[in-house]
Specification:
- By secondary structure, the chain is of the alpha+beta class.
- The chain has 4 domains: 1-194, no CATH class; 205-273; 281-326 and 482-617, no CATH class; 370-437, no CATH class.
- It contains 21 helices and 7 strands.
- It has helices spanning 2-12, 18-35, 41-48, 53-86, 88-96, 101-142, 157-184, 187-191, 205-229, 236-265, 268-271, 276-325, 344-350, 355-358, 372-375, 388-398, 431-435, 452-464, 480-533, 538-575, 583-615; strands spanning 330-334, 359-368, 384-387, 410-412, 426-429, 439-448, 475-479.
- The protein has a 4-stranded antiparallel beta sheet. A 3-stranded mixed beta sheet has the order 3-5-4.
- Residues 62-186 form the ABC3 transporter permease C-terminal domain.
Length: 617
Amino acid sequence: MFSKLALRNVTRSLKDYSVYFLTLTFGVSIFYVFNSLESQWCMQMLAKSAHYMVESILIFMNVFSAFVSVVLACLILYANTFLMKRRKRELGTYFLLGLPTARVSLLLFLETLLIGLAALVTGILLGILLSQGLGLLTIAMFSAYPSGEAFGLVLSGKAVGKTALYFGVIFLLVMVFTGLSVSRARLIDLMQSGRRNEEMRERPLWRSVLTFLAGVALLLAAYAMLLLRGLLYIDPLFFLMLALGTLGTLLFFRSLSGFLLRVVKSRKKLYYKGLNMFVLRQFNSRIHTTYLSMTVICLLLLLAIGITACCVGLNNTIEQSTASAAPYDLTIQNYSGDTVRVDISARLTEAGFDTDALLEDSLDFLLYYNDPVLTGFSDEEANAAVSLRDYNALMAMQGKAPLAAAALPALSREPVLTGYGAFTGLAVVSDETAARLSPRRQVFAANYRGDKQAAEDALNAAYASPDFHTEETSFHLGTRIGVYMENMGSKILVLFMGLYLGMVFLLTAAAVLALQQLSQAADNAPRYRILARLGAPEKMRRRSVFTQVFLAFFLPLSLAVVHAAVGMTAANAVIAQVGRVDSAASSAVTACFILVIYGAYFLATYCGSRRILKENR
């Protein structure tokens, strides 16, 4: 009987559960997507190559997942509290009819179980689809996919089990807290819920203005400290800057409860237009008590925007460094080349690497020590030199234009070595001048022919062979695939962890806002009934609901965008030290996440608020 009653309650109150169900589904899907990362092809490629970052990425993922599960648990408990508030009179009716507390707790237990199972199944199914989007993102991000493998749905049994375990524990906590709240509830409080009015004392205008100015001043001071000092100095002043920014945000929202209403009241046409007077007074009374939560929501949105945008920007910078660090498929440097020059191509052949069949083109050349007297460049400008003939041959292998002899001597920033630690500046001199310089090292650069991975495997086998090395030589091998794999691990760690945290913070902020607005809509239902009796048209009432929800959602978002713009400026200054920052790409990705998650909650909240008001007409 209770199972049927629980199912009927859930079905009947499906619209009331919409935001709660949306929060659970989004939480489950996000949790599954990022915990299924181990099954993505990029991680499998790293695992096949025994890359050291695989274990680090999985450790970070487990740590972040534990943190995210705590955040989602708090969010789901908060959402459940909202539902219990909406159902107080219903629960009071159960008690009034003589239903024991244990039976009511059992009923709520079954309802939570049904909603939890439905959200878990829906979230995992959505997560499986979204994980394919993650796979497509990795393909676009790395501009590659393993040859001979078909792209399709990937189901991670480990991620499904982990998601079910974590959310099973969360739902169990929800059931326990629900049972405790029911056991402590008093019948009179349940039956009189919604009848208590909140006292609202209007603040003097001068106090609101001073609070607003103080908040703006603190924010400007925090912005100035961030832009002047940067993000690299973690000291007491850094934490002071964070404190100033947080306090400034708090004072900004605190001042709006008196400041915004007075400003709009001074514009009579705007104030008396439609239901603006009602909307502003309702918003003013709410922000009077919710300014603290609006501050927290604004900071959560700041973290979501900042983390997502900065991680995408840093990912693009890492991608740029791949091209500059790997101009050729391989370079072998002979550090003993200043005294002992060897035929590297012949050594590879002796070690079992078929250079004729596996290499498209190659060049064996010398790098020289820079001599400012001969090259005309200081050691700070150029820390190595190369002859014009070798330089133009290297540029031809990269598909770049040659350097004219008339431009000599020239300073080049073009990469000529594959691998990190390349020369920051290269003096290009005539062949005659190069002959007068002291050799620094011998370099063999080449590009593969045909299957690059097969050629890479053959090269690694030859390089590991004792036939290649001798006691008088010291070699260093750098390959484009090696650099690529190194950057793949860094990009996975930076981008996916950033997206993981950014989406969770955005989900948390949007869900809390949605629940607050739905609670406000339930409280405002009697007021809208009065407006209807006074003759306010349906269209005007709908517009007032939209305005209240819009202000609640986009006021903290607007300030968070300002915070994030300043923070991203400082972060980009740090990222720009190692490469160019693609602000457009990071902004576009962040905007997409906000549009999908934040926009979905905004629409769901608006529709839910309208429905609550319609039901109470």
